[in-house]
Specification:
The complex is a heterodimer of chains A (220) and B (197).
Chain A lengths: L13 H13 L27 E4 L5 E3 L7 E7 L7 E2 L1 H12 L6 E7 L7 H9 L7 E5 L2 H10 L17 H6 L2 E4 L5 E5 L9 H13 L5
Parallel strand pairs in A: 3-5, 5-6
Antiparallel strand pairs in A: 1-2, 1-6, 3-7, 7-8
Helix pairs in contact in A: 2-6
Chain B lengths: L1 H7 L2 H6 L1 H14 L13 H4 L1 E8 L5 E3 L4 E2 L8 E7 L4 H17 L4 E7 L4 H11 L8 E2 L4 H6 L3 E2 L1 E5 L4 E7 L7 H11 L4
Parallel strand pairs in B: 4-5, 5-6
Antiparallel strand pairs in B: 1-9, 2-3, 2-6, 4-8, 8-9
The chains are: A alpha/beta (220), B alpha+beta (197).
Chain lengths: 220, 197
């Protein structure tokens, strides 16, 4: 595994994150069967810890933890609403993927975790996310600095706060490479998906991949 | 609002220059709408532009008008085109929209059109509401809710803008917002699209 020393305020170079992915693929031990449709090498099952967080949800203001999402496919994306320069298409593309999933989309929970809680209040988050799709399939999470730091550290998400209106993208490696974390129904991390925010997303393949993951959620 | 400034024709206006006056007005308009407090703070086109050398064919992806008609870029062959991909959830897109609106008026006589294409899934309603609230008067309502233009242009995000010359070739692209109505931006745009035939 490449050196993943965490230090707040230190940008993780993009190569470092790619290294993580490569390292994860190599150290995965017995490979799980790939989720058909997801890019090869995206499996991180067993290499990142199960979903755990405490935050407030923007749709209803309720304090939620991973327990509230047992049985669902959770997709985490870390970002902020006031992109200063170019806005990533990750949420937009995830919404499109949900539309293509059809019925199994009801098991999906795309959770946008703000790394800019000072600016992204719950009402702001709710208003912003309304442009992509309704809860519960698309929702926002906002925590205190400590809650955010804990969740970000858990999944090696680097960010720099606070942000100003002209500040550079605070989620350096993550947003530029558009990593999306996909968790299976028992909170076990399943896939780290790159390029969801970028051009050339294979929507059909991604929808098929999430369909398969959602179908493993069973009847809970 | 802009046309009323022109018709005033005061000596003061001529002295400080129309652009400065527009910037002042734009600043007032923008600050009331929680967009950047001062107009003229976005990057200029000469700095922001990535030239496409050699030029590339313009995308064929269709989009729809607010009235529900399908169009593609071939309809504007002979004109220069500023094709701007944007969304109402995108802050820098909204920040440059007043400048795009002013640009449209400045270059209309030169046969250059500004085509903002929204990828909002909220479609026409989202765009019309935004135009109304921000007093955008010179820009068409164009929609691409399925993001076909995003795919065609391989846009990494929004705003992404491409400049298309009169022969229908992409000659430059920009990622991020631009002060489109600044004189250096307008001058470069005119040069890029080529002389009217």
């Amino acid at each position: 595994m490449p050196d993943m020393r965490w230090a707040s305020g230190v940008r993780l170079p993009r190569r470092g994150l790619a290294g993580l992915l490569a390292g994860v693929a190599l150290s995965a031990g017995l490979p799980l069967p790939a989720v058909a449709g997801f890019p090869p090498g995206s499996d991180v099952a067993g290499d990142l810890p199960p979903l755990a967080f405490t935050m407030r949800r923007s749709s209803d203001g309720k304090r939620v933890t991973e327990a509230d999402y047992r049985g669902d496919v959770v997709v985490l994306y870390f970002g902020f609403t006031r992109c200063p320069d170019v806005c990533p298409l990750t949420l937009h593309n995830m919404a499109e993927i949900l539309r293509r999933m059809g019925q199994s989309a009801v098991r999906m929970r795309v959770l946008f975790v703000t790394v800019d809680p000072a600016h992204d209040t719950l009402p702001r988050l709710k208003n912003y996310l309304a442009g992509f799709g309704p809860p519960p399939e698309i929702d926002g999470l906002r925590g205190s600095s400590a809650e955010l730091a804990a969740l970000a550290k858990r999944y090696f998400v680097q960010y720099r706060a606070p942000t100003g209106p002209g500040s550079p993208d605070p989620v350096s490696a993550i947003t530029h490479t558009s990593y999306v974390y996909a968790f299976g129904p028992h909170g076990r991390v399943r896939d780290l998906l790159a390029g969801v925010g970028g051009p050339g997303v294979d929507f059909a393949a991604m929808a098929a991949g999430f369909d398969r993951l959602a179908q493993t959620a069973g009847g809970s | 609002m802009v046309s009323s400034i022109q018709s005033i024709g005061s000596p003061l206006l001529r002295r400080i220059g129309r652009r400065a006056a527009l910037a002042g007005l734009g600043g007032g308009l923008l600050s009331g709408l929680a967009l950047p407090a001062r107009a003229g703070t976005l990057p200029l086109l000469p700095a922001a532009l990535r030239r496409l050398v050699p030029p590339e064919p313009a995308p064929k992806a269709p989009f729809t008008t607010g009235a529900g008609q399908t169009r593609n870029l071939a309809a504007w062959r002979g004109d220069g085109v500023v094709l701007n991909l944007w969304a109402t959830w995108c802050l820098p897109c909204k920040a440059e929209m007043p400048a795009l609106d002013r640009l449209a008026r400045i270059v209309a006589a030169a046969g250059i059109v500004v085509l903002p294409v929204s990828i909002d899934t909220g479609g026409r309603k989202a765009v019309v509401t935004f135009y109304r609230e921000n007093r955008i008067a010179h820009l068409p309502v164009l929609l691409d809710p399925e993001g076909r233009m995003v795919t065609a242009l391989k846009a990494p995000g929004v705003p992404t803008t491409v400049i298309i010359d009169r022969q229908g070739r992409m000659v430059g692209r920009v990622e991020g917002p631009v002060q489109w109505d600044a004189s250096s931006s307008v001058a470069l745009l005119r040069k890029l699209v080529g002389a009217a035939s």
